[in-house]
Amino acid sequence: MKIKEVTAYLEQLAPLQLQEDYDNCGLLIGHPDTEVTGVLVSLDVTEEVVQEAVRKGCNLIVAHHPLIFRGLKRLNGTDHVERTAISAIKNDVGIYAIHTNLDNVVNGVNYKIAEKLGLKQVSILKKKKNTLLKLTVFVPEGEATARVLAALHKAGAGEIGNYSDCSFRTTGIGSFRPEEDANPVIGRRGALEEVEENRVEVILPAYLKNPVLRAMQAAHPYEEVAYYLHALENENQEAGSGAVGFLPEAMSVEDFLPYLKQHMNLSVIRFTPVSKMIRKVAVCGGSGSFLLGDALAAGADAFITSDYKYHEFFGAEGRILIADIGHFESEVFTKDLLVEIISKKITTFATCLSEVNTNPVNYYY
Q1: Same fold, 3-101+333-353 and 109-126+240-330
Q2: Which end of the chain has the least Cβ crowding within 10 Å, N or C?
Q3: Which CATH code fits 132-232?
Q4: Burial of 267 (0-12, 13-18, 19+ CB in 10 A)
Q5: CA distance 102 to 208
Q6: How does pLDDT run across 112-147, given as a tens digit for each residue?
Q7: What is the pTM of this model?
Q8: What is the pLDDT of residue 298?
């Protein structure tokens, strides 16, 4: 199996189009046509991680954090990024990053945190807008409509939340006159034709536009397909930041903090005091202070994230427990998630969990 086949599978689950503007996900080092001998999964990529990959016979590292965030102007080995990149290139080790695109999908990073905490009824905390399209296409009634709908659904259109194969159609009369150079499936050149047609409507993620349109064109009987696309402002139920769910039962703060520490394997928690029971919990792996307003709007009793600055804690105002558990600690279980994802689908080579602790922060207590 080639690198491009592994990355294509990962991008089906976490499309690159869902990464944030500042991010740099995808294949950062390596050639897509390289045969994979093994995959090493890590949270970060360091020189030590590259050497671990070499020792274990893995020529592809799949990491959550991108090694390269900004463009490299030279490779002189003057810092840890350059040295790591040089080491990977010398040892023919590919590096693939799956960062905020994995944060922004159902069953991604934040859902893994929710799973570790035993949260129920989990949903995305801040759903993305302006990421959906509505496709309207006109198809002859009968078998043609069924064939086009089947093709659209297979290509990924018509999925709304927990429902698939969603569509709407109405019947009307389509009219057209084939010109002399036309090759009509229905009607004759020069003659006005009227056909009973279905107006078919489906919703699709914007990143699937091209494959969905190709599927539509291939399945449609007409030489020229009448269709149009509308950009939607609807919230995308399948994409967005953070997650929110419910604990199995309400807890006091005194019980919740040790529960959080145990389930996330923490050494320390920075938190804001609050006088309330904890039942509804919002989470965001990595730096999540931008989601505090969304956590409050969702009615969360606690918000678990990391990288909170001193003055940002004041935003709790006694309304919510903010728990800063550390950046590494909030995302470390992403490694387990990626191993589960890759191993479930691909069994032709070994998928290894990195044993290198890449946390750059230690605690003295």
Answers
A1: yes
A2: C
A3: 3.30.70.120
A4: exposed
A5: 17
A6: 999 999 999 999 999 999 999 999 999 999 999 999
A7: 0.89
A8: 97
